[in-house]
Structures are given as structure tokens and as C-alpha cells.
Amino acid sequence: MSLPKTDPTKTKAWSGLLEHFEQIKSERMQSWFEADPDRAERMSITWADFYVDYSKNRINDKTLSLLFDMANEAGLKQAIDAQFSGAEINETEGRAVLHTALRDFGNMKPEVKETLAKIKSFSDKVINGSWKGASGKPITDVVNIGIGGSDLGPDMICEALKYYQNHLNVHFISNVDGDHVMESLKTLDRETTLFIIVSKTFTTQETLTNANTVRSWFLETMNEADVKHHFAAVSTNLDAVSEFGISSENIFPMWNWVGGRFSLWSAVGLSVACAVGYKNFEDLLRGAHNMDRHFQETDFNGNIPVVLALISVWYNNFFGSESECIVPYSQYLNKLVAYLQQGIMESNGKSVDRNGEVVSYQTGTIVWGSTGTNAQHAFFQLIHQGTKLIPTDFICFAHSLFGKTDHQNKLLANCFAQTEALLQGTYGMEVENSFKIFEGNKPTNTILIQKLTPQSLGSLIAMYEHKLFVQGVIWNIYSYDQWGVELGKKLAKNTLDAIENKSTSNTTNASTKRLINKSF
Ligand SMILES: O=P(O)(O)OC[C@H]1O[C@H](O)[C@H](O)[C@@H](O)[C@@H]1O
């Protein structure tokens, strides 16, 4: 089983969409709402504790039907089956893509089960204090050292599930910036801190540099023999971890069939299990699995990731939208966008198709955003009155966690009101002058979830994972490699040699040469 290799622009549906776009590109959503009282009901999906309203989009039934035709012609069903079957759909790296297998409790690989049991026992001990530091004190602080997929996921989840957090403080050291490392260490007590080094490859320059610096700092007052009480690691490269000096009982495996940006469901989530307890970590995984099943089993027209992906393709490839915005109305989700940026942009930032040909159409969207209501007072002006069409996802929760009704009502009112303002603008209204005109007709999706729980959070993240996969399938690209990151890494190595040796004789570019010389 492999991924189909269909050029989307050669499908019948693509030609149909081009023609259809010309017919409806200037139509106003407002008039569709007025003409069709069932629009909101028809263009929404209720699933588990999710209500997804996609009616405020510049689509009609014909658009949807053509988009579904395109998905069929692109072989989306076959692609979904190929992914879940464990086929090597990451062909350029010769790997399967099975992050979904990490959360499939009914059908779990023995090595995954075993690792989950190890995560449970380790995190239980750290939380209940039976895991002792070298001097016999319980752990108070857990520090995750990793970058990219080995940092963004756990950091985002720990922040999102703060409400469920126990007494442990969690910290994240990611950037190779030494100031970041030293700032993070400033308040930590060596005797009560546990460091988890997370790196799929265990070759990442930033993580290894940071891990070495932290170990030297640790050894300023502690002994080599104490390391095993304070350092754990998560990696596929078990030899390199042992070489670093971490004892085997503190090593957690991960596997090549889990991409870094999809790895929070593996032992990469160890800091999450420590922060919120294993039960909540498992609930997160179960929530993701529920979304996996929805994605795998639901017809395209009721399938949340599929519908959201196709609508996004519609704006990207027909309206020419370059970016999309994500605005969660929950301060807990303030790291969600950074996390999704890696997932979405590292996956779909590709310009060669699955046949090895340079694409003739747009692929990966630029994803950006921040939490509401803060974003309203920052960049919303541009979405409302700027010249660009920026489809926006509004994510909100029906119930808050602390039950502050007054705040919650205002938070939701702002969220819903923004989608309406973007839809209506001042169209048909009398305004004093042209500066006060809001064009409106700006597309939004609203994802209303009952409550922020580990389970609903798991479902939400899995929703975006599947959405990006569907887009990659349609664009005929390989979403699961990331060759583009490699060149910069190579050049950084050469440049480091120049900086360290204070010599630019091997630096060819004049601008880089001057920059290096100015830094001495
Ligand atoms: O987990 P590591 O092997 O240290 O990799 C960390 C990160 O490295 C690179 O930047 C990759 O592009 C990312 O996908 C990965 O998450």
C-alpha cells in the first residue's frame, strides 16, 4: 500500500473548482445565510464534545461537493488506509508513519505498551516522592531538554493542562542560547531536580550542547554517581544515550516510525506524565485516538479533519490566501500555535511532488496566531480591514475550568462576535467615512469544545494532525519528511568552525564573511 501520486491540478474536480471559483468568488456569505435558514446546521459537525461550525466560509454545497470529488480523485481514502496500515508512506525516508499507533489502546504494539508502563511507574514515583535525588530528597522540578518536536509538544501540553498539574514544577530548555540555559538553571536546586534529555536522534547540536552544559553545572557540586538519580533520556539512539552516561533504567525508547513533530504521544511526553500524572497523560492519548477513529471511519462530508483540510485548500489554491490564523480563546492554549506551526509548516512546506516534480501550484499554508481576546487588541485589525484574505480558526470552550461565569461569558461573547463581525462587516450599513468600512465576508471556522480536558485536548491536536495529512495528500507532497531543515544545520557547522577559529578563509559568501568578522 502506498500513497497515490495524483497531480491535483490534473483532476476533473480541479477544473470544476476553477470554473466554480469564478462564479462565486464575489458572492457574499451573508446572502447565503439569508437565503438558507439551514445553512448553519448543514455546515456544522457535532462529534463527541466538539461542535465544528464551518458555515461562515465562502463555500456553498457545490463547492463542498467539488472538494469531496477532488479528495476522491486524489485517492484520499486509500491514503488514509495506507497511513493507518503502517505502510512506509514516508517514502523519502523509508519509514512508516504511525504516531496513531501510540494511542491505540485496543491494538497496541508490545513495545509501546511496555514503554507506557515504564512511563507510568517512573512518573508515579517522581510524583509521590519515592523517587529520591542523590541526597535522599524528593524531586521538586522536572526539566525537559530538547528542541523542535522534542520540546514544543510537551511544553504546549504542560501549559495547556496547567489546571491539572500537581506540585512538580516543569521547565523547558530548548534554545542553544546559553543565556536561556543559565536563566533556567538559576533557580533550580541540583538535589531536587530531574533532567529529561529528549532527542529522537540524540545528535541534535542544540540539545547535546545544552545537555552537556547542564551536566557540567550539575557536577559542580554533585558526583558522577549522582547522575543516575537526576538524569533520564528519551531517544531512538540508545547507544548515544548510554554513552552520555545515563543508566539504562532511565532510558525511554522511541521509534523511527514516529516523526519528531508527532512524538508527544510517545515517551517524549514523559514530562507531561510527570506534570499532570499518568492518568491524565493516558486520557490525552485516548482523546487523540477517538479523533483517529473519527477520521478513519467517517465519510468525508462529516469528517472534521477532512472538511477543514479541504476548505483550507480552497482558500490556498483558489482564493490565493497565503496564510491562515488560529486563535484559541483560552490562555491555557497560548503555546498551541507555535506547536502547530512546526507540525503544519515542517510537514507541508514542500515544493516537489510525490513524483519528484516541482509543483506548479501552492502547497503549505503559513500558520500563525495567538490567543483571544489578546489577539483582538493586537493583529485583528489586519484581518478585518487589511488587503489579505486570512481564513481564521476560532477555538473555544463552552465551560471554563474555574467556573468564573462573568469572565467566561465575555470570553465567548468576544469569540462569537468576532466571527460575526468578520462575516458581516459594515456591508449595507451607513458609515460616516470610508475609513470605517469593514468589507466583511472574511471566512472563519469555529471549533467549540465543551471543556478543556486532557481528552478533548488530545482530540483537538489529532484533528490538526489529520488535517495537515489530508492537505499533503491533495497537494501530492510527502508531508512526513523535513529535508529542508538539513542544509541550515550543515552550514551552521561550517560557520561555527569559522567563528571558533576566528577565520573566514573557507566562508564564500561576502555578506556572511563580513558578519562573522564583525562578531569577533
Ligand atoms: O528530537 P531530535 O532528534 O533532537 O530532533 C529535534 C528536531 O530536529 C529537527 O529540527 C527536525 O526538523 C525536527 O522535526 C525535530 O523535531
Automatic annotation (TrEMBL):
Cellular component aspect of the GO annotation: cytosol
Keyword hit for Endoplasmic reticulum: no
Subcellular localization(s) per the UniProt record: Cytoplasm
Example GO BP: glucose 6-phosphate metabolic process
E.C. number: 5.3.1.9
Catalytic activity field: alpha-D-glucose 6-phosphate = beta-D-fructose 6-phosphate
GO molecular function (one): monosaccharide binding
Predominant localisation class: cytoplasm
UniProt entry tagged with the keyword Isomerase: yes
SUPFAM superfamilies, per database record: SIS domain
Entries under HAMAP family matching the protein: G6P_isomerase
Designated name of the protein: Glucose-6-phosphate isomerase
Annotated source species: Pukyongia salina
